[in-house]
Amino acid sequence: MNGFIFDLDGVIVDTAKYHYQAWKQLANKIGVEFSLEQNEQLKGVSRVDSLKKILHWGQKTISGEEFMALMTEKNDQYLGLIETMNEDEVLPDVSKVLNYLSKKHQKIALGSASKNAVGILNKVNLTPFFDAIIDGNQVTHAKPDPEVFLNAAKQINIQPEQCVVFEDAVAGIQAANAANMVSIGIGDAHVLHEADYVFKDFTEMSLEFIDKLINPKTVCN
Question: Chain centroid to CA 134: how far?
Answer without folding.
Answer: 11
